[in-house]
Model the fold of this input.
Amino acid sequence: MDWGGPSFVILIIAISTAGWLINNWIRARHGYALEDEWSGKTEHPDQIANAALRKENAELTRRLESIEQRTAALETIVTDGGFALSRQIDALRDTPRIAANPDKAGARI
Done:
C-alpha cells in the first residue's frame, strides 16, 4: 500500500466517517443527544416530548393535590354533626304537619 497516495487518504476519510456514523447510531439508539458538526448537541425529539410531558405531569399533580385538599374540606363539612342536624331540621320543615284538631287529622297547615 502506498502511504502517501490518494487511496490511503480516502481510506482514512472512510474509516473516520464510518466511526462517526456508528457513534451517532449507538447514541440515537440509546437515547443520548446527538452531536452535530460544530460540537453542539441535537436533542432527540422524544427527549423534547418527554420534557413537555414532565412539565404537564407536574402541573396535573399540583392540581390533583389541590382538588384532594378541597375534597377533604368538603368531606369534613358534610360529616360534621351540625350539617346533619341542619338536614334533619330541613326534613322536618318539609314534612306535613298534623292539625291540632283531631277531626282534620290528615289536613296540612
